[in-house]
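in:
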């Protein structure tokens, strides 16, 4: 947890400097940071339920994957959307039957 807080603190400290590379670079960095933060929050919320094999936790990981894909689409990383999405959804749906209500 301290490592995550340190990473977020450094990101916040360097955020204003990202705009020195141009508006597009700064905006992309900010948008990527927002999507990543959303993913981290959902995955942290899912951890206790994943150990208990709860379907609600599996859904949180699913939503986190969707946020990842939207973030990659917004950044125009189409290769990452196709390959990352296919791999993520393959593994997610392979283990879905292990999670119950």
């Amino acid at each position: 947890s301290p490592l995550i807080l340190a990473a977020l603190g450094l990101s916040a400290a360097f955020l204003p400097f990202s705009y020195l590379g141009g508006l597009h670079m700064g905006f992309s960095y900010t948008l990527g940071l927002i999507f990543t933060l959303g993913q981290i929050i959902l995955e942290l919320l899912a951890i206790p339920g994943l150990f208990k094999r709860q379907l609600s936790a599996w859904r949180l990981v699913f939503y986190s994957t969707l946020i990842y894909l939207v973030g990659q689409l917004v950044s125009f990383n189409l290769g990452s959307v196709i390959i990352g999405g296919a791999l993520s959804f393959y593994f997610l749906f392979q283990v879905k039957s292990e999670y119950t209500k």
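note: Residues 2-98 form one domain.
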